[in-house]
Amino acid sequence: MAKAKPITGLDVHAPVTENARTIARTRLEEIYEWSQYVDNPYEVHNLHNLRIAAKRLRYTLELFEDVLPEESKAIVEELTKIQDELGALHDNDVMIALLRLCLGSQDGGVAYEQALAQANKQKGKAYLLQPELVADVLDPNVAPSPQQRYGLEQLLHQHEQEREKNYQAFRQHWYQLQERDFRRQILNFLNE
User: What integer pLDDT is reported at residue 1 of this predicted model?
Assistant: First the structure.
């Protein structure tokens, strides 16, 4: 997960409203730094970072809702929707990765051994799938039966289709927001 940008330009003597607007502008810029990945559905990590950036702006607006204009509530609703859409996409990505690992572990061989060794070395680092889970899925003692494998393949296909649908819904929503100049809409009330 990408680290939040540090907030600069805060003034301890300024009204809370002014500092809230400074923080929100920084969080808004973070969103648009990640927006370059919107058109690439395979930028799994960067789309997740976009989700986190949207969450940070949303929480900032919610935290300071008492000192920000009423328009911020509509922005929070849009940010929540973006977050939910990208969250569903991320959930699909995790499930697809797990299913592919599980189905691929049956092939065994050197690739399996290397993946298991790599998973064991990576404990404690941030990955799409936790290394302990990868090690469990790759354990040959829990390999699926032929009937289970068929079911897993069907489930994988279902999640791949659902992921495509979720991605298209997010992308359509994103471009609807851009058509109405969402960024400018937010900046307008932050700069009042």
Answer: 67
**CA-to-CA distance for 89 and 48, rounded, in angstroms?**
9
**Cα-based distances in Å from 176 to 26, 98, 100, 182:** 23, 33, 33, 9
- The pTM of the full predicted model, rounded to 2 decimals, is 0.81
Name residue, tokens 């301890």. 12
Contact, 20 vs 67, CB < 8 A? yes
- pLDDT given at position 114: 57
**Other CB atoms within 10 A of residue 52 CB:** 18
HEC readout, 43-104: CHHHHHHHHHHHHHHHHHHHHCCCCCCCHHHHHHHHHHHHHHHHHHHHHHHHHHHHHHHHHH
pLDDT tens track for 51-100: 999 999 999 999 999 999 999 999 999 999 999 999 999 999 999 988 88
Q: Which amino acid is present at 6? A: P
Q: What is the DSSP letter of 4?
A: P
Cα–Cα distance between 40 and 9 in angstroms, integer? Answer: 34
